[in-house]
Amino acid sequence: MSKISKFFKGGGSGAAKGRGGPSPQEALARLRETEEMLSKKQEYLETRIERELALARQHGTRNKRAALQALKRKKRYEKQLNQIDGTLSTIEFQREALENSHTNTEVLKNMGYAAQAMKKVHENMDLNKIDDLMQDITEQQDVAQEISDAISSRGTFGDEFDEDELIAELEELEQEELNKGMRDVRLPSVPSTSLPSRPGKMPACHSRFLMIKPCSSTRKRAEDEDEMKKLAAWAS
Question: Which residue intervals are annotated with compositional bias (Basic and acidic residues) in the record (predicted)?
């Protein structure tokens, strides 16, 4: 049995079991430390490969034995470098899987806490009581709506009066106003001057003041006609 197998089956696993196993954070920290160590090992091997390659070029065919030894060491370093590359890929894959598992565990844990909190909140809730409460709320909303409709509806004050009587009274008032307007109208007065004896003969006032101003009788007649037109328009 190899030493690595003895380690995992022996003290190493026993120590982990004694502690209840490492936490995800501890395992991730160990993996990152291993990645860092292997990365430094990579840099070292790459440097040694370049050095051995330079020695092989330096010796060349002049010192064939030394050149071959340098190339052999370069090959061993390259082999170790390839092994480290594979190990780093495995560790990186394991670290990502552990990170995802840790994330999923935390998500499930928080979801469990939330489920317990919801259960605790709903412990004191009775579905029957909730239905009764919602029914009460609906009834009170209906009552409030009826009150609002009653308040906002048109009032019935004054509906006891007969509308026909009111219309008759209104017509009487309009007739009184019409009669009053007729009394206030001034009828046109009879002209005081005599009519001309022959058609076409213009009164003296017209002949004397034709280009200055109309005579008084003509002006009076025009005013009377205007008043009659106003009276007819008001009566219609």
Answer: 220-230
